[in-house]
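Hey,

Quick one before I head out. I ran the complex with flavin mononucleotide overnight. Inputs first:
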Amino acid sequence: MVDLKIISGTDRPNSNAMRVSTYVKGLYQKEGIDTDIIDLQDFPLSEVAGGRYGEELPAVDTFVDAAVTADGLVIVCPEYNGGYPGILKMFIDYLPFPNSLDKKPIALIGEANGAFGAMRAVEQLQQVFGYRNAHIYPERVFISRINENFDDEKGIKNEFQQQLLISQIEGFPPFIRNLQKNESLVSGS
Ligand SMILES: Cc1cc2nc3c(=O)[nH]c(=O)nc-3n(C[C@H](O)[C@H](O)[C@H](O)COP(=O)(O)O)c2cc1C
């Protein structure tokens, strides 16, 4: 069983990212995979005010630990001003460097009201995770026009986008397992 965490990539209350994360969690459950959602609304922001990089911050360590120990991450990311939300960068910047993202499998789902479904935000994340040597799952999902195009029970109304989401959910766990297999062959463990 793979340990998957879904990151709801904003601290905005009642966010679409959380709606999508909850729906995605349900789809993984149907595949027999239990996941937890990491809600960035709960990031202990007051602990990092003033810039506490490199300091001992137990509340932050506890919060990020679920992502650090996970076999893979699914990131649900809205687009804010042509990029990804600041809280998501804060979360990434407080992940231990370099090991926490090194070779970490990551699947990306963008959501936005615009026509491109947070493509800019997702591609910026790919750049950051590429720098951190993560293994990005190639099948990305972009949910455009989220306010009209998403139903909490049925998912994405646009059939093609829904098919891409299902395909990502079916393909990501085997991607992780194959990487784990290759890793153990290389390390001989
Ligand atoms: C601060 C802010 C900036 C936004 N900028 C964009 C944008 O650049 N492009 C876009 O398509 N939508 C933009 N939107 C709309 C959001 O992408 C859309 O409402 C999304 O569903 C919000 O995600 P959330 O509910 O998960 O916070 C913006 C929304 C906010 C709150």
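The longest helix spans residues 159-187.

Talk tomorrow,
K.
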